[in-house]
Amino acid sequence: MGDSKATEYQERIQSLDSRAFRSFWEAVYAGSEIPGWASGKAHEYALLRAFELAGACVTYPFEVRASRSQVASEQVDGVVYHDGLAFICESKDWTRRSDIVAIAKLRVQLMRRPGTTLGIVFCKAGFTDPAKDLASYLAPQMVLLWEGVELDQAIRECTMLESLVAKYRAAVEHGLPFWSIVDGREQA
Predict the structure, then answer these.
(1) How far, in Å, CA of 148 to CA of 174, rounded?
(2) What fold does the segment set 3-174 form as a domain?
């Protein structure tokens, strides 16, 4: 995606106040086509805006050259900074559950970052059992898994940061990267 389109998306999403953002999110979560937004981009930018509206510092999607030769690059869907923690985000606006590929991709990105950097994969439809198993055994890079229903609840209840901290604490205390903020237990 060109820098001008990324800048346009960021300006559009940041122009939304809390009320307008909630309406935008409802359309994204419902799977409605959002005029002027490429497939998946509305979800990607909306989750970052939700964290930003909650008071987190965010970096919107960007591309990184993984080598000096410009042969390899990586697309980062965004970064959330909160309470001394840094989370690289991967967004999947999918109607099918995410398999291990998104988690493996994020893990590779984390391996190039400081050891304290964590990852979050957001997938509207949730995750397969193999994906949850993989997330449980990543070391030392932890990847938290957020299903669509959790993200929707956190946005509707304005608890993005509280939910992030709760998921992080469950990962630290119980080794559960897929602990659900909806019902306070492992995701089924």
Answers:
(1) 22
(2) Trna Endonuclease; Chain: A, domain 1 (3.40.1350)
